[in-house]
């Protein structure tokens, strides 16, 4: 099996706690890459990219772990692509 790139978008509940959410996401989820994406009216989403092994339920586990973080309004898997 190969590897896949999983891109996840996390919407925060409270922008006042956004820096804590970024820190927690890096420490807990250990993404390969993290970007901030402006949404609207000062709201910013986190875009996280992960490299996981294909076929081991990686995206489901990542999504479940992301939902456990504090200050998370929603988690969405944006794409899953083979490398």
Walk me through the structure.
With 83 residues, the chain is α+β, with helices and mostly antiparallel strands. It has one domain. It is 27% helix and 48% strand. The chain contains two helices and four strands. Strand 2 and strand 3 form a beta hairpin. The longest helix has 12 residues. The termini are close together.
Query: For the largest beta sheet, what order do the strands appear in spatially?
Result: 2-3-1-4
The average pLDDT is 93
Number of domains: 1
Q: pLDDT below 50 for ≥5 consecutive residues: which ranges?
A: none
**Biggest pleated-sheet summary:** 4 strands, antiparallel
Following the backbone from N to C, one meets helices and strands in this order, namely EHEEHE
Terminal residue distance: 11 Å
Write a brief structural summary:
The protein is α+β, with helices and mostly antiparallel strands and 83 residues long.
Keywords:
single chain, 83 residues, alpha+beta, 4-stranded antiparallel β-sheet
Break the fold down into its secondary structure elements and pairings.
Blueprint: E1 3-12, H1 18-29, E2 33-40, E3 43-53, H2 58-67, E4 72-82
